[in-house]
Amino acid sequence: MSQHVVVVGRGLAGAMVAWKFAERGCRISWWGDGEPGASRVAAGMFNPVSFRRVVEVWNASAHVANMRSTLQAMEEAFGLQGALIHDVPVVKIFANDAYRQTWDDRWTTDHGVTQWAERGQPAEGLDITSLNAPHGVGKVHAAGWVDVPALLDAMEAHVATHHTLVDRAWRVDDGLPDGADVVVDCRGVGAVKELSEVGLKVNPNHGDVLTLSTEAEALQTQGHNVNNGKWLLPMRQQDGRQWWRLGATYSWDKPTPAPHVPAAQALKDHMADAFHGGASHAWDKAEVEAHQAGLRPASPDRRPMVGPWPGQPEGVLMLNGLGTRGVLVGPAAAEALVNFWLDDLPISPEMRPDRFKSVRARFPD
Fold first, then answer.
1. Which of 336, 304, 311 is nearest to 11 (CA)?
2. What does DSSP assign to residue 360?
3. Domains of the chain
4. Count of alpha carbons within 13 Å of 238, Cβ hemisphere only?
5. Residue of 271, 330, 318, 326 whose CA lies nearest to 295
6. How far is the C-alpha of 21 from the C-alpha of 31, rounded, in Å?
7. Which region, left, alpha or beta, applies to residue 89 given φ > 0 means left and ψ of -120 to 50 means alpha?
8. Closest to 329 in 3D by CA, of 120, 37, 16, 80
9. Most buried one in 171, 192, 301, 328, CB count within 10 A?
10. Whole-structure pTM over 0.90, yes or no?
11. Which pLDDT belongs to residue 277?
12. Chain center to CA of 139
């Protein structure tokens, strides 16, 4: 008989866990308490390059491959081919000559990051003549974004049709629900207080994101996502206007997901510096179509927490802490959890919750 899996949390982490268990023939009950989550605000971008140090992000090759295969399978199952994952290269504006040198040095040493990106070049080489990039730019061709709200909507419809969608809250003290073989906690920041009691710290990271529109020809990025410390992601043209998403802020001192009003102008001003000439003036006429914010669940080492819930009986599991790389890391993290439970395969020590000394001190066994 197939196992009955209760997944708690209707964000990206919960969707990935529910999907991966369902792929293995399990019966899914997907619980949610109706509280707004960061997943429906996130731009859903993926990028295998860390711009801070110009290196590959953690397990880039494996995570990119798993993400693509998972999302393509979901697109096919939901009848959304080409609608969930979108390939959009990133053009990184170099801040100074030293950063340009660090970037270009990766090609002299045959660094792994070179499989995802291209050598530094003038912005004009990409036919983006309006960028203010005196030190040049670097292009990451293996980047893009995932339509996370569309994914969540489709997954909810799929579960409602083929499994069970439940509007119900859960806390870890509730334990294993009646009739379930396993429960997986994917509540994100909703579990912060309970996690802190067992030595796990999930830092709610507040982020503001804008949806903007400009005159259709006012800004030309040739289909690239422009990054100058913030990012400007082209979305679609509609009614003679180009729509964009612009973000994001990062704040550790805002405890609620309410938008921070001053962030809108700060984001616009920051990105305006990335353009010169007439393009810079386009920001004066840019219209803010939406201002959203959310609380990202970030772990201290920026890696997910995957495995048994510390101090709980067998059958109470967790996946939390996806942070800003959820679409890239989430599918592989969920698969590792499923393989652990169904096949008794070990979870990488890099992801287990007990990798933190604070947890081992409370639960030495």
1. 304
2. H
3. 4-43+148-201+300-362 (3.50.50.60), 89-142+203-298 (3.30.9.10)
4. 8
5. 326
6. 15
7. beta
8. 16
9. 328
10. yes
11. 81
12. 20
